Amino acid sequence: MNTADLIFQSIAALTSPAEKAWIEEKLHADAKGISLAFVMVPRIIAKHSIENELSIITGWNWKNATLDQLVRVYFLLHLAEKEDGKSRIETLFDTAEMNELVALYRALPALKTPEIWLHRATDAVRSNMGPVFDAIAFGNPYPHTYFSELAWNQLVLKCIFNDKPIHLIEGLDERANQALADTLADFAHERWAAGRRVPSQVWRLIRNFQTESIEQDVAKLSKSEDANDRKAAELILNNSPLEAWKALEQVEPIYTA
Amino acid sequence: MCQNPNEAKLNPSHFEGSNEEHQTAQEVEGGFAAYTQGMKFFDPHVHMTSRTTDDYQALADAGVVAIIEPAFWLGQPRTGLASFKDYFASLVGWERFRSSQFGIKHYCTIGLNSREANNEALAEEVMDILPLFLQKEGVVGVGEIGFDDQTAAEEKYYRAQLELAKEMGLPVQVHTPHRDKKKGTERSMAIALEHGLAPHMVVIDHNNEETVKSVLDQGFYAAFTIYPFTKMGNERMVEIVKQYGSERIMVNSAADWGISDPLAIPKTAALMKIKGISAVDIQNVTYQNALDSFAQSGQINEKDFIHGLEIDQSLKFNGNTVLRGGQAPRVDKNSIFIR
Question: Which pTM value belongs to this model?
Answer without folding.
Answer: 0.85
